[in-house]
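Lab meeting notes turned into a lecture example. A postdoc, R.K., suggested we walk through two folding results consecutively so the class can see how the record format repeats. The first protein's sequence and structure tokens come next.
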Amino acid sequence: MDIGSYILDGNVDAVEFCPHDSFHNVLAASTYVLQEGDCPSRSGCITLFDVDDGKLEMIQKVETAGIFDIKWSPALSENPGNPLLAQADANGYVKIYNLQSHSVSDESELPGNCLNEVHGKCISSSMCLCIDWNSSSTSMAVGLSDGSVSIVSLEESQLNILQEWKAHDFELWTAAFDIQQPMLVYTGSDDCKFSCWDLREGPSQLVFQNRKAHKMGICCIAKSPHDQNVLLTGSYDECLRIWDVRSTSTPVIESSISLGGGVWRIKHHPSIPGLVLTACMQNGFAIVKFRGDEAKIVETYKKHDSLAYGADWQRGDPFEGGKTGRAVATCSFYDRLLRVWTPEGAVFV
């Protein structure tokens, strides 16, 4: 069932529901626009939405450089009660925004939620293509367009580069912390190499590198929050691969499934193991169930007319407080379209 849609001012490449209690209704979407000409520039924005009671409402827009990726912090370590949103942009900056909630009694502010920039640092002359928090929200892994990866810490209200190394030969589209073992970082690139690094060594030690499994560039890596041995990768070769990483140095492919388009984004369901939402570029969006060596598509969504890039699950109990709960947000690039919808009930059985 469709809840709502919105045409943004730029090409939409990421959507992220806030994972924290009291903010499950907050959805952020980011855009990237290349202004060509004698002096080309890359602009963008973060747009904040309220998704609640079966409706989609825009509440704030923040002008930025062109954005490639955004991620909410998984923990509230630095600002208790206030989630943080990280931005990776085309100007080589990492920026951090604080999500604040204003009540009707705040005379100087309009009621509702809003983002305020609290930190920003240029970490490279290359473009920042992806970003991921560690589980404690004290560090971020940032993939760069020159194939490097930076580990950026957020400590004492400052952003600092802890490590940076040349990890790949081409653009590094995905970098992901291991949720259960945060000393490990996984990276994937247009060079088709799937790599794992141990941050306890400096510069970081290569744990493994698989050069043969992916036939084209690697777009995304997603460690399961439910099973420490399960990791998923997505590639331009249109395959979603489920890996067993029990043996850290020699991961094994448990199963794979073709989704009919480049697998740009993978999102594990926040509470249901073995259920993922995927953005499949030229082939819309697919919800996939997997268990052991079996994987199957259980639902597709094809109401976008352009490249499917961003996707996320809404957190929270759908039966509490009238909130939508199990809604999904998806976005597509060139048609600048954001949609919020609910999957069929059978998906969750």
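The second example is placed directly after the first for contrast:
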Amino acid sequence: MSTSASAPAQKKVGKAVLDALARGAPNVDLALLPNLTDLSAETLTENVIKINSLCEDQRLKFVMEKAVTHLHAFAKEVGLTTEEWMKAIQFLTATGQICTDIRQEFILLSDILGLSALVDTLNHPVPVGSNATEATVLGPFFTEDSHDIPNGESIASEGKGEYMFVQGRVLDLEGKGVAGCTIETWETDEDGLYDTQYEGRSAPDCRGRITTDKDGKYCYRAVLPVAYPIPNDAHLHMQFAAKGFEPLTTALYFTGDVYLKSDAVFGVKSSLVVDVKEITDEASAKALGFPHAPYYLLDRDFVLITVEQAEVEKKKSLANYYASLQAK
């Protein structure tokens, strides 16, 4: 009497899968997925894309499809070796290990690859011929814990560098002051280091949050920033947020800096380069709250565009980009 072996019973999913589903993980209908066995270099990319084709978020689906397509094409074009792949994994792992709640090393990686500058350029165009302030990269050293600083007060503790007084107005395109605009500002000390780079940091330093007055005026005491070893030129970060206006992240760069024309994060724009004036008058220094002269004066206005104006410019920028592709 002959017997035939029956098919083995399908194994039940484990506790880890059940727990994930209970936490809200998607319960994918496996019948909708392609057969993922015996894939080759020629068929792998299309099947990775198919796996993500059930994503309900159409924008995310589109972005992931393009990311997979270009990433796989890159590996094929350069003939990426296993050793090179592993070195890249180790590099990204090390980058992540440097990150903390107050330091974002992946932003720095994005910066030095030019990706930050590219994304910024695509997303923050300004009206042609206007005096709207141009945006630039955020950088890796922004934190959420800045203290609110009254106008005229200091963002830096004593001994952090040469004194600098920053003043100006925040305006709209018509030249009217923008009242109640929140300004986040941060910078290096005289050693070219941010507060987040010091061990044992207990409070924010060389950074602060200021609000413009009824006329859009702002002012604060700071220190003269210096270049730091990426290499990156000296700059003063400033970020603006006001009701009805497009948020602006920008920075001011200083004339004569050794790295001004070779900025490693590709953020310098001519419109953001400024001159500072050295003031040696003792009475003036003390009137502003400095213990003594000299100090440097940075006088700069910033011009914001409205949310509606920004949307118009983004659509124009996108249209121009696609037109340039068709012309090639």
